[in-house]
Specification:
Blueprint: E1 8-10, E2 16-22, E3 26-36, E4 44-51, H1 61-70, H2 79-85, E5 89-95, E6 98-105, E7 112-115, E8 125-128, H3 138-143, H4 150-169, E9 172-173, E10 182-185, E11 191-194, E12 201-202
Parallel strand pairs: 1-5
Antiparallel strand pairs: 2-3, 3-4, 4-6, 5-6, 7-8, 9-12, 10-11
Amino acid sequence: MTSPPAPHVEHGTLALGRQLGQGGQGSVHQVLNKKINRADSGGWDVVYKEYNSTVLPQLDATALELAVALLVEPGFGEGQWLCEKTAWPAAVVRRQGQTCGFLMRAVPDRFQFMLRSLAGSGTGTQRLANLEYLLNDDAYVAGIGLTISDRDRLALLADLAATLTRLHRIGITVGDLSPKNLLFATAPRPECFLIDCDAMMLRGRTVLPQAETPDWQLPAGEP
């Protein structure tokens, strides 16, 4: 059976909101006029990742197409789960026929929190709940507005291990695994959510050359 083509969106049809983030490979923006999975309470919000012009020559557009097409691949029963646990690419975005980025699910609210100032001033700012916050001592974690128990931490690690196992089972390898790319929630239950999914390897192919977060690379001698 022939797989359906990967969904495509023309850049000019996107109503973009504010920029949400900026990284070495590109920037992430709100999308005001698109949703995915409309069967679930009207759909999930999406965001747009636009690649920097400097990385486009290294972009494997076919690998991105394959990643997006995975969600609609006949017989692939993991699409719903994949989009519940990761910000997996959901549509290829093109500008005048050239791939320039992709749409993905916006991070669900439960994986965000209001970051309080340790000085106690201001009302706080909404931030992604990156796992890196939990690498600090308990006083710091509580001071910035996070509440997490030792039981929550263990349950979170168990969920991460189960998620990675399931990803590997369906042919997805997480290359750049770091606290910056892992989000967490404690309610209604401890769980993780993975971002930067275009850095993952699908069935041996990657969208861009593999990169590693500084100080989170494999130890010398490891395969």
